[in-house]
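Posting for a labmate who doesn't have an account.
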Amino acid sequence: MPQRTNSLTLGTDRALYVGEIPATGWHCHASPVLLMGLSGRFALHRGTGSVVTCHSALVDAGVEHLFDPCGEVVALVYLEPDSLEARSLRSMFQRQGGVLLDVAAPVRARAAMEGHLRAFDLPALLQRHLLQAAPPLDPRVARSLLALRRPQHGHGRLARAGLASEVQLSASRFNHLFRAEMGVSLRSYRVWSQVRLAMTGLAVSPRLTDAALYGDFADSAHFSRMFRQTFGMTPSSVLKPLRQVTLLG
């Protein structure tokens, strides 16, 4: 059987991991995720105690879960909370308790499916009724996201008070606005953006120590703790097997 090539593709407001990964621990992240079994069914455990096996699932940000690929090749599509697709799914998630099962078209032609995944063509991947009209993002939150996603080059992560001041809001009002617009707290999203930034560093250097520094973590141990908290896996178990890292403009 040919060896699979694990790959990571990072865009401005979305990310894709394709390959084989171990079962995760319990975790929740600050981004909705589309889970797809490309070669078979996987198991999804929820904090309620339920376990389901399915070919695809959408899991909202902040929903605790355990993902077991069951040895299958999988695709994980992470949508930044401010993306049009994530915001269009918000009302559906609220009605369905944060998890939508078997939402993707069946995998008939793997090459075509992986093409849709790499193009982040969600209308081709998902059932059409899921993607609904979404209101525009508040420009003050959009401005803060630009700052959060930018490397700080050793100056430390941006404080809430500074982000609030930049958009002329009090810290408490900014917190409320950020959660209302993004569906997650500023604190959770700041960790998420930092981990995501570290992963973009892999396009420059495959060393996890370098990735940690690129993400403005204090050291590799800090990066490892936050990665495991975010994804339920160690960075070495997911990032070391990578054979391709692609950054989209």
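Reply:
Got it, the structure tokens are right above this. The CA atoms of residues 195 and 226 lie 7 Å apart.
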